[in-house]
């Protein structure tokens, strides 16, 4: 009924109106789609431009600081070449990748567009003092001092051990930034103290030398009050001199052990420094290593630990100044060492022991009283001393040939027989033991026997050779154990090697160890048995 009353013209008008609105909406939709297409194209163009900004060529910079606004990273401070600049940051750069010391990539517009591998190279500097958790005072290669900011990797919470005086760092000096720790094996190995466990009782054939060393070093340590009552200072150092292989290093280690036991303070710190190990081609490096060693010694001495600094082959380090037989490195090394030795007087727990077989090459300033006060000669063993040394190496725990036990009756008697026979073979003034014939200026001549070049190390080598022969014989199915015959065979082999060595080297070098100054040297050929 209602539909019959609707005017058709009205309906037609409404339809046309709806059609017009639909057409308008379609046009608007087309315009919107076109706008979206243009926006997409513009975004693609912008992305392309941004990507081009991140493409090479790019420059490198080192970050020195970060700047925030409302907790948002807005800029970086960086060293670009030799210029300190504040740079904008590309949105694609992640904030968590950046910290002081980071290596940045910047484009031609001076915008940070990336972060490269961390920078771990730079000028080598040495730590003088740690000022706080973020700063350190260093010494540069020119000798000047500078305060540097620590990169996060060098801050205390990120290190296994805190930075110490003498540590080497890689630094960017223009950026005032310390980048990383340089691990060095050379001097670091030297300044790691050993804790020897060698007693004087284990040293054979050096009773007089051991007694002199103990009097010079142990007494002031164990009876300081008595020394003070006599107004007597403990010696700062001891020089052990004599031919090589005669026990100088063993004595030094025994000193460290003895001092620790005397005070009941646990292990002693023993620095075993080889003279040539401290020599360095770079100016000032040897002196720095010497300072580092003594600084470490002082730290340990402050902990009330006995400290022994042992300089082996001392003539390589402290050669006579002005001798003209080296590169004159000693003109700076010797004064540095003298300054450190003089500084030991303020410490009660540090002993310096030097060892050399060329005492004539040492600088006189090192040997004067007040520095290396006590000089002790460690000579070659005589027959009695050789027997004592052999007894330290031929012990009852070793396998002994059953034939030796049957002949001697007991292990101890068998050892004494073997030691006695070995000593007699070594020290016999026979043609078999002749190694050199020397002639003096006045025409007199004499024979040099193998016994004059025997040392504790030589005797140990003879025993080791006999043990090797015993092992080979046992592996071959023969009688096992050490015997007199094997020891004598070892003596003969060592003698032949000594003869060959004399023939192939400068014999005067060997005679210098004996204090001889011949005008002619002739090698003696021995019969081969």
From TrEMBL:
SMART domains: AAA
Swiss-Prot/TrEMBL GO biological process terms: modification-dependent protein catabolic process; proteasomal protein catabolic process
Domain AAA+ ATPase positions: 234-382
Any coiled-coil regions, as ranges: 15-56
Cited Pfam families: AAA, Prot_ATP_ID_OB_C, Prot_ATP_ID_OB_N
Highest taxon in the source lineage: Bacteria
Keyword presence, Lyase: no
InterPro entries noted in UniProt: AAA+_ATPase (IPR003593), AAA_ATPase_domain (IPR050168), ATPase_AAA_core (IPR003959), ATPase_AAA_CS (IPR003960), NA-bd_OB-fold (IPR012340), P-loop_NTPase (IPR027417), Prot_ATP_ID_OB_2nd (IPR032501), Prot_ATP_ID_OB_N (IPR041626)
GO MF terms held by the record: ATP binding; ATP hydrolysis activity
GO cellular component, one term: proteasome complex
Record key words, sorted: ATP-binding, Coiled coil, Nucleotide-binding
PANTHER family associated with the record: AAA-FAMILY ATPASE, PROTEASOME-ASSOCIATED ATPASE
Homology family: Belongs to the AAA ATPase family.
Protein name in the entry: AAA+ ATPase domain-containing protein
Native source species: Actinomyces graevenitzii C83
């Amino acid at each position: 009924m209602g539909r019959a009353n609707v005017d058709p013209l009205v309906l037609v008008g409404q339809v046309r109106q709806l059609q017009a609105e639909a057409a308008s909406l379609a046009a608007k939709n087309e315009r919107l789609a076109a706008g979206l297409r243009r926006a997409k194209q513009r975004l693609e163009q912008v992305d392309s431009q941004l990507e081009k900004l991140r493409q090479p060529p790019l420059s490198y910079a080192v970050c020195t600081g970060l700047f925030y606004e409302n907790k948002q990273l807005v800029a970086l401070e960086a060293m670009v070449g030799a210029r300190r600049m504040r740079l904008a940051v590309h949105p694609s750069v992640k904030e968590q990748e950046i910290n002081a010391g980071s290596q940045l990539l910047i484009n031609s517009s001076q915008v940070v567009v990336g972060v490269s591998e961390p920078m771990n190279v730079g000028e080598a500097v040495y730590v003088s003092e740690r000022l706080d958790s973020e700063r350190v005072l260093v010494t540069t290669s020119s000798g000047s001092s500078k305060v540097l900011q620590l990169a996060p990797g060098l801050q205390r919470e990120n290190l296994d051990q805190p930075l110490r005086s003498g540590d080497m760092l890689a630094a960017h000096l223009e950026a005032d930034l310390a980048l990383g720790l340089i691990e060095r094996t050379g001097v670091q190995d030297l300044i790691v103290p050993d804790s020897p466990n060698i007693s004087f009782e284990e040293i054979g054939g050096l009773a007089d030398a051991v007694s002199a060393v103990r009097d010079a070093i142990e007494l002031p340590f164990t009876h300081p009050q008595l020394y003070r009552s006599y107004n007597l200072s403990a010696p700062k150092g001891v020089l052990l001199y004599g031919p090589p292989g005669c026990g100088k290093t063993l004595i030094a280690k025994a000193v460290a052990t003895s001092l620790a036991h005397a005070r009941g303070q646990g292990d002693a710190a023993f620095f075993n420094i080889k003279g040539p190990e401290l020599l360095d081609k770079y100016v000032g490096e040897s002196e720095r290593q010497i300072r580092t060693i003594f600084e470490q010694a002082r730290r340990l001495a402050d902990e009330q630990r006995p400290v022994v600094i042992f300089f082996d082959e001392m003539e390589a380090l402290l050669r006579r100044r002005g001798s003209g037989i080296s590169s004159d490195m000693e003109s700076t090394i010797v004064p540095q060492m003298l300054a450190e030795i003089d500084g030991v007087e303020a410490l009660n727990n540090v002993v310096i022991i030097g060892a050399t077989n060329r005492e004539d090459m040492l600088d006189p300033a090192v040997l004067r009283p007040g520095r290396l006060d006590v000089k002790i000669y460690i000579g070659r063993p005589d027959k009695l001393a050789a027997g004592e040394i052999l007894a330290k190496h031929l012990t009852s725990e070793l396998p002994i040939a059953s034939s030796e036990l049957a002949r001697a009756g007991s292990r101890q008697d068998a050892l004494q027989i073997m030691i006695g026979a070995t000593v007699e073979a070594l020290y016999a003034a026979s043609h078999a033991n002749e190694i050199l014939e020397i002639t003096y200026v006045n025409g007199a001549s004499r024979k040099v026997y193998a016994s004059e070049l025997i040392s504790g190390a030589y005797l140990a080598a003879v025993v080791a050779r006999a043990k090797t022969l015993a092992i080979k014989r046992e592996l071959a199915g023969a009688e096992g154990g050490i015997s007199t015959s094997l020891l004598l065979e070892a003596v003969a082999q060592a003698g032949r090697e000594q003869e060959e060595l004399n023939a192939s080297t400068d014999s005067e070098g060997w005679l210098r160890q004996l204090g001889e100054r011949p005008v002619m040297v002739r090698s003696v050929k021995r019969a081969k048995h």
